[in-house]
Amino acid sequence: MPGLIDIGANLAHDSFDADLPQVLQRAWDAGLEGVVVTGSSRESTLKALALAQRYPGQLWATAGLHPHHASEWTPEFALLIRELASEAALVALGECGLDYFRDFSPRVQQREAFIAQLQLAAELRKPLFLHQRDAHEDFLAILRKWRPRLGAVVVHCFTDTREALNDYLALDCHIGITGWICDERRGAHLIEAVRDIPDDRLLIETDAPYLLPRTAAKSASRRNEPCYLPWVVKALAAARGQSEDSIARISRDNAHRFFELER
């Protein structure tokens, strides 16, 4: 199987503090060639970039404020993102978007922080790493307004309906698929929907430490890791009627192109 790239793993999460070198070695042993580490708060953004700089050519980072933390958006955080954007290892802005499932931040503040980060991405010409859960209508309206000013966009960890998927494809978005597709109970609709994703828009991710694939051998901690990404490949290959090698190659090449990664 060609080398895989996990486009979204929360390796800045404290559950990886004690054994990150071993986590990465398991990833390389499983056939991965790189991981994009998600920044979703001030702390995780700085930590993600530090990790990417510690492992050049293997790890890269994003910088953003997840909707759960939208109430923490400040001009100072916007300035920090501007400063970090010049770092070679910082390959996208986000994770940002809307999450009406948890509502950890008020929806008004979620929308304000989302729009502010879209504006930054438009100014800085950085790819965008987006999150949407139970907020499709508002998310789509905002994204549609801003899309002409943006570069590459991925709706990561996609778990929504086939109709939502096609709304995002119509806006020239990439789609990130996780181990959700490995769950025949919650992910049954996704098994059908992923057939609509054009080859050149498909990206794969673990969203570790979350969303451990149901089909994978379970760790005692139930923690997901990048080494479980091949299980996403297997499920996608079965759903789309393509070989695992084809899914691996397509998603790897798309990741290189989307994030402008150096080989």
Describe this protein's structure.
Strands 1-2-3-4-5-6-7-8 form an 8-stranded parallel β-sheet. 40% of the residues lie in helices and 16% in strands. Strand 2 (32-37), helix 2 and strand 3 (59-63) form a beta-alpha-beta unit. The chain is of the alpha/beta class and 263 residues long. It has one domain (4-259): TIM Barrel (Alpha-Beta Barrel). It contains 9 helices and 8 strands. The mean pLDDT is 96. The protein has helices spanning 20-29, 42-54, 75-84, 107-124, 136-146, 162-170, 188-193, 229-240, 244-259; strands at residues 4-9, 32-37, 59-63, 90-99, 128-133, 153-155, 174-177, 202-204. Helix 8 (229-240) crosses helix 9 (244-259). It is globular and about 45 Å long.
Give the topology, please.
Blueprint lengths: L3 E6 L10 H10 L2 E6 L4 H13 L4 E5 L11 H10 L5 E10 L7 H18 L3 E6 L2 H11 L6 E3 L6 H9 L3 E4 L10 H6 L8 E3 L24 H12 L3 H16 L4
Parallel strand pairs: 1-2, 2-3, 3-4, 4-5, 5-6, 6-7, 7-8
Helix pairs in contact: 4-5, 8-9
Q: Keywords for this structure?
A:
263 residues; alpha/beta; TIM Barrel; eight-stranded parallel β-sheet; 9 helices; 8 strands; 40% helix; globular
CATH superfamily assignment?
Answer: Metal-dependent hydrolases
How many DSSP H or I helices? 9
Mean pLDDT score, rounded? 96
Strands, count: 8
User: N-to-C SSE series?
Assistant: EHEHEHEHEHEHEHEHH
How many domains comprise the coordinates? 1
* Biggest beta sheet summary: 8 strands, parallel
- Assign an overall shape: globular
User: Approximately how much beta-strand content do the residues carry?
Assistant: 15-25%
| Top-tier CATH class | Alpha Beta
- The CATH architecture can be named as Alpha-Beta Barrel
In order across it, which strands form the biggest sheet?
Answer: 1-2-3-4-5-6-7-8
Helix fraction by DSSP (H/I, runs of at least 4): 25-40%
Fold-level CATH name: TIM Barrel
Structural class comes to alpha/beta
Low-confidence stretches: none
Question: What value does the Rg take, in angstroms?
Answer: 17 Å
First and last CA, distance: 17 Å
